[in-house]
Amino acid sequence: MSLLYLFFLSSGLFLGWSLGANDVSNIFGAAVGSKMLKFRTVAVIASVFIIIGAVYGGEGTTQTLTKLGEVNALAGSFMVALSAAITVYFMAKSGLTTSTSQAIVGGIIGWNLYAGKTTDIAVLIKIVLSWIACPFLAGLIAIGLYLLLKKIIKKVHVHILRQDQYLRIGLILSGAFCTYALGANNIANVMGVFVDSAPFNEFRFGFLQLNPTQVLFFLGAIAISVGIWTYSQKVMATIGNNLMKMSPFVAFIVVLSQAVVLFLFSSSALRDGLHALSLPALPLVPVSSTQAVIGAILGIGLLKGSKGINWNITGRIVGGWFTTPLMTMFICFTSLFFLENVFQQTVCLP
What we know:
Layout: H1 3-22, H2 24-33, H3 39-57, H4 59-68, H5 74-93, H6 100-115, H7 121-156, H8 160-191, E1 203-205, E2 208-210, H9 212-242, H10 248-264, H11 268-276, H12 289-303, H13 311-341
């Protein structure tokens, strides 16, 4: 593997770091904010399961993302990932969570525009519709789970101390499931544009066997883990405390709802199983964990009368969903010009 490739890959690793700093807060912010779990505990859990999900479940959404625009030059891939990482980083630095999925899509469209390539409108519509459906689906699932589990708790008559123990275990298990789903769904955002140019060989170590794409995903997942440990705690405060004060029970519902939504949009096995039964399935696209968690929080908040929701912060976060792809597209288009004309790098092939 050449030093030049490592340099270009660094932008994807930076984007992975940004995703860890930003998106994992959507999963564990509620648990940390409600004081049920410590940050160190959730960082360990998230790091392990994000790697497993990325390596063993990430190829489905990657295939969809590459159809949006096949970035065919390594320098172009570098700038697409770097533009997305810059956008996500500044959002995280401001304490606001944003969508890595929207950032990378904006970067790919920026590359398509600069390279004169056609953006696959059908794939773009599929992705955008998934973004719209994601928060509504998360909200509906959260409301359903909230009402169902409330009834079960009342009938079982679990002691309050026992409830806390069960909730802590539930937060750990649902968080592990959710970080697995996040890795499977969002590794495409981090490393998808580098798949075609990956110079790796198949890796074997005992029973462990990884193909070249999985090796690439493993490196991206390591970068995500570094982001979790170094910068996610600040963004967790926004999700866990400022958007809406959450009890441990609500925190559990939020994490579980988000996990289900991410899994639905990333599981190849589930999609194939539903198709085998002639049933409809959701497309395998990278969706926003940000939108999923916000949808779940708002769903429960509205169910409880909406008084506890901080609408000011909600509005700022939703506004970021619109500005993120546009900002990334502009950064990418402008940066490609300088990369090609000032640094004499080939950013696109005929």
